[in-house]
Amino acid sequence: MKKTWIFSLFFGFCGSFLFASGVEIMAQTVDIKITTVQMRHQQMGLGIERLAKYSQEKLKDKVRIRTYPAAQLYTGQEEIQAVIKGEIQMAFVIGSILELVDPTQELRNLPFFFPNIDVCYKFYEGPLGKKLFAKLEEKGLLVLGTVSSGNVSISNNKVLLKRPEDFRGLKMRSYGRMGAASLKALGAVSIVTASEETYSALQQGVIDGLTTPSSVFLARKYYDIQKFVTDGGMLNATMVGMTANKAWWNNLPADVRAGLSESIQRLVQEQRAEMEVQNKKIFDQIAAKGCQVYYLSSDEQMALKKALQAVYEEFSPKIGMDFVKEAQQEVERLSKPKK
To answer: Mind listing the domains of the chain with CATH numbers?
Structure first.
């Protein structure tokens, strides 16, 4: 009887200790670092601040979120590797960085592949988009939401760009490997510069112009040093993505993961809506800053796409010929008006 009493006391004590420890573990604050290479006033800089605010409001002291805009911790390529390695938990990244992790992500950069951003969103939220992102998951990276950065702006200081031949001989900067190949196919000289060095490169004449998302052109004040700007439309899909380390995300307490997911979706829907409004006005804003702005006609876009077929021939095998064909069929299906 005495032994039974002692064992009961011992196990009761252990159970109370484990229960108390469990409560403490469950109540432990989750530390989250979120980074982006963009400045605080740019799309992704604003995005990570809003996400921190929304998540903190919803989850209270269950999370402690620290934000690092303007490449405070890492450059773009370093940043995505830091997420994969678990050095940081989340990052709002430029789409071209994902291509360095998995080359099939370059699909979105095929010239004029998507007719508009709505079709692009539907594609990436559908089965083929999920198939693409699954390739990143295999590398330990989750894409939790995507947002457009607006139409592509094509600018320079020498000539208004309307036709493929207008690009010949221009020294231009683009983003990503396919962007560089596109400029080369049009006869321009593709120059590599880091995004933070592009403004000074334009000032010093190292480059004549660049292609960049229209929202970036405006935010980085390229209008101060560029004369001619063409609205390149959907020359490529200028996407940014909220990413997270897969193992970290899957191991979060369910309520924390649900709260973060809800906050991310709120941010994504807000920024998509804001970009839709901004995209209609942004080239007017650029013109108001003193640039001569040109809008490509549908025939001019088709002429550019025809001149850029060499890019399809070079990159389709790297993405996967069968997948590109499947994706083209899906885009065609999504583009059809509803009956």
So the answer is: 29-101+114-148+238-279 (3.40.190.170), 152-236+285-335 (3.40.190.170)
